[in-house]
Amino acid sequence: MLRFCYGPMDCGKSTLALQIDHNHARQGRRGLLLVRHDRSGEPQISSRIGITRQALEVHAGTDVRKLIREQWIAGRHVDYLIVDEAQFLSPAQVEQLAELADEVQIDVYCFGIATDFQSHLFPGARRLFELADELQPVQVEVLCWCGAPGRFNARVSDGEVLREGDTVVVADTGPGVFESTTSLQPEANSTTLRYQVLCRRHYRLGDLGPAAGKRGQLRLT
Ligand SMILES: [Zn+2]
Question: Which of 77, 130, 137, 142 is deepest in the core (most CB within 10 A)?
């Protein structure tokens, strides 16, 4: 089985990933934790509520089947795989996971974000939507500032919702704050980006809410 649990940022995906690992491990099953671009910069699955487990880093060119074969060679059986930040997998890596599920009956649990800051599917997430046996939205609801369900990860810089830029910006420096690693402009290195989850309407309008300040909002009714 190949499963994809998806949701916006901060909806508790990594926490759920670690819970599922715990549930399987308690049954005596042997799992392997994989991660692509963990927010801590270390190969580990770390949830924002403070639980952390070591994981293997999947790099851009990693063949996941080979990773599993190496485990077998080392005498370690693998019953299940937990993959965090699965949106960053390449489509080919998602296909490798499907192959592992089909050919050697490994249970694969992928966790990730569906859409990027431009509201388009990440290529890895798209391939998971196409191939997974089960798709499950993570049930912990993240709300927009207006109270509506938040499904869009807005990238914010200087109080503005950004519409253009690289899809992947990594190296988190704290909860919800990301340092840009893009170097398209000389000053981009010092730009502090953050993400804010918004409902579709406020994502579309670029409205970060009254707390965002900066725009001197007038509420006319
Ligand atoms: Zn809203």
Answer: 142
